[in-house]
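Note to self: user wants both folds in one dump. Writing first protein now.
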Amino acid sequence: MPRSPVHPCASASHTVRLLLAVVLAGAAAGLVGIAMALLLEGFETLFYGVAEGSLPERVEAATTARRVLAPAVGGLLAGVLWWWQRATGGVIGVERVVADLSGDSARRMGLLRPFGDAVLQVLTVGSGNSVGREGAPRLAAGAVAVRVARSLGLDRSWGPLLVASAAGAGLAAMYNAPLGGAAYAVELVMLSGTRRRGALLAIPVSVVATLVSWLHSGGRASLEMPLAPFGWAALVGCLVVVPVAAGAGWAARGLWAWVRAHPLPGRWTLPLGIGAAGLLTGTASLWLPVLLGNGRDAFQAALLCPTSAAAATALLGVVVLKPLLTAATLGAGATGGLLAPSFSLGASAGALGALGLGALGLPASVSAAALAGAGVTLGVTQRAPVFAAVFVWELTRGPVWMLPVLLGSCWCACALTSGRPDQRS
């Protein structure tokens, strides 16, 4: 039978509803990003007793007891609440909603549990535990987008794309990275075969979310990067650290996958395990404060790293300890992201490589090498080269010449370490 023609009024109505959905989902994601940022600052103040400054500055101003015990107490509290949550039904995540074409997962997702889980993730990071914070805004923004899609009557061909776009927009709002948020939605959340059309939603939703988030961030870049003018020494330094960062990402990805596949037995171990991982992290912070939290501060430290033996030792400490502490936290049962632990590992490895080249008489830009390392490691752990390159570049608002270098390096690293650069983690 021939298809019935679509009435022009119906088509116009659907377009209007889709545009409204983009604005509402983007605005909601921006507000979620602001709320999570404020909540994170509040938890850091609560646990470390210092109201101003970055997390390492708060940590260094805190007492020794707070530095050691804050991650343990935060992990223990989050573990108890996660124990209850998982025993009473758990949380339906964004990826499950997007993959379930029947719409059943979207109907059962709700708002209370996703927002509750997001708060627990921020609590875990705000108390100093080594796990990413990006899962919180993604989950909360995706849950709101489900409601928006249902309220506006979007069909099943557009609803999941809106949810995926909102998840990326939550990431964009938290890190002031609209292109990175859109790339995350397209490359990591959307199903194969829907990504080209999904980009039509992901980009405007992330842009709206980022603009709304400027009410809190003022449009400032998430990280400060020193000037890194183009030169052959800087370019060669970036390329030299690519295999080092790729190897670090490959090892970390394998370690994190293993601990997630072998969790501690029994739900009763959840609070004790996360608390113990927090105690390890807090103890390690007595030597290296940037080990606390998701890894953003370690990335910043790598970008601003001075040329000294002490700085090289600190970078090596992050390279060795950050993935191990993250593995302990994940293996204990914590929920959280891996973006920041990944780019902090890569940035530290890249900066360390640049310092090594300098010691050999081959000058290289430490900040450029740190940025290249961050992108490569993130791309390998997530198997998402375009997202990794664009995201870390936006985080720092790095030099324009670095973007093609990042794209090429991330793609090659993903291809060499996985064989399938577009395969999801």
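First done. Writing the second protein, which came from a different request thread.
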Amino acid sequence: MKVREVIAFKNYFEDFLIQQPKKVQDKIFKVIEAIETLQRVPSNYLKHLAGTDGLYEARIQLGSNIWRVFFFFDSDRLVVLTNGFQKKTQKTPKNEIEKALRIMREYNEQKRKEDGN
């Protein structure tokens, strides 16, 4: 049973996903399924990004390769995927975090307009 709904905003996440090998896509879907179905998702899968207002990263690892998918919560039950990337350095690239924050602002602005505020 789902405890959360996961959606992708526009095509940012999908653009990233289709560029990944099938095995990586499968692993990403497993992590998304965990987010949807587990009340408490293990911290090795998810991490809040310090210094951001509600941005999280989902961690995907396959062999020695690492990927990150950014997301945020819209209410308690809705998870919005933003973008992803393959991690090649110890530190998460600042431009990837900035892109995720930009997508989050874009989502919130669009939602405000749709709500008529």
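Dump finished. Worth passing along: Strands lie at 5-8, 46-48, 55-62, 65-74, 78-87.
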